[in-house]
Structures
1.
Amino acid sequence: GIVVDEFARTAAVNVVAAGDCTNHPLPPHGRRVRLESVPNAVHQAKVAAATLLDTPAAYSEVPWFWSDQYDLKLQIVGLSTGYDEVVMRGDPATRSFAAFYLGGGELLAVDAINKPREFLAGKRLVAARARVPTAQLADASFGRPTSDVPWMIWGGTGHSMGFASMGDALTSSISSAVSSYEASQSSSGGGGFSGG
């Protein structure tokens, strides 16, 4: 692919590239990738436009993909490369399940088959580099809106990330989890998370 930096700039002066043809850096993975997906092309086009308008904004999208195959809705967020554990939620025989890929305890990716709520939650959790106990990932009752543990978001509409209006307790729990993560990263010299 065409090698670009995080601002969609090529080696040629004043030339940008975006979409399936590019090979670009993918934070926080620390490697270069070539992604063939509509969401990547759209996000990279925005990055390229910002660069051309002299208001550069680095590529920050967590990779995600989808496909409808007859009665199956396949939705994937993140890249599972480097995983060391897979946690299943649901039974593949029912054609409705999710696979959560962890690497060193961190959620790297989610493959959701007819599980849109798990996919939506996965987008937020993978972006946050969340560490969720495997028992909770496997438990289909965990994280539902009626759960006692509100920070695991499982869908809805109305929020800028496509999530439901969450209420004070849920918003507070998410903010607390992100703040804790940022504090741990700044004390260890790692990069923080910028939610939004």
2.
Amino acid sequence: RLLRHEASAWRASDVQRSLLMPSPRHISAAIQQARAVAAEAPAQPRYREGRILGKGTFGIVRRARDTVTGEIVVVKRCALDEDGEDVRETVLQEVRLQQQLHHPHICRVLDAWEDGAERELCLVLPYFACGDLRQRLKSQVVALPFEEVVAIGAQLCLALQYVHARGILHRDVKPANVLLADDGSCRLADFGVSRR
């Protein structure tokens, strides 16, 4: 009699467990449903874009925050023309070249993607709080100090020597393409029209 009571209690608790514990088939269906919902939900952008820093030939440049690292970066959005191939090829060339170049005075590309909804190619670059040399020259009431001119010139020469040794011509060295770091160093940027 005690055994029958124990067996019926065990069966009752087994039934309760089966009602509370989903079967592997139910778990699999729930996972598939969750994946479908996640696929339909809009992806959160990694870079939270802020104010516009400048406008160029191909598009705009905005200050942004990398939501993964918390780092302040720059997002350069290049608008695609009607067929998009000319701009796409120019920007992709810039990305390919800058990913091959590892030098302390050359600006590196951190990330790149195509935004199909906005018809734009996007590049992520480091943020330079001091801006570019063009902005610096415009804001100066008097000429730059001689030591600073020599330091910027020397750093650009090192960057160009490195690039030329790899058979690349930048073809667009100008103050707007020289980014200034707050430690006094500078980086050569914008390899969009460069050639091998």
